[in-house]
Amino acid sequence: MTKQLTHLDESGRARMVDVGHKPDTQRVAVARGAVIMQPETVQLIIEGNLKKGDVLAVAQLAGIMAAKRTSDLIPLCHPLALNHVAVTCTPNPAEKRVDIEATVRVQGKTGVEMEALTAVSVAALTIYDMAKAVDRGMRLTDIRLVAKEGGQSGSFEAD
To answer: Could you read off the pLDDT of 9-18 as tens digits, one per residue?
Structure first.
């Protein structure tokens, strides 16, 4: 069986997938990523000594807000009434980074992978924005889906 891209019609044009016939089911997605930085930058974030304020709290809020607006950012995503969005931003001084995780839940006809990935991406961008004055060499890395549950394709867990 060959898998086909669901967002292309028979002519190869982009289309929004019709999910109207699908039943509402519980769907969950978890995404992770990190922002790698200088050790001094991690320490400034932990101590709350950056001029723009509490980096971790602002990044968490930005990630939550971004998950709710995913369909405004990704052209073919369905707008969803999300039941839950949790974003954590955890300093990891030993690895010189801030680890980010987002969990998104919905009772709906389509999954929330893009919402979880968008939450992590925007949280990472927010960390960069708030700390760029002291460390322009930061790297956003390893943004990926690590788990999902629900829907026709079933569960997925990354290696």
So the answer is: 677 777 667 6
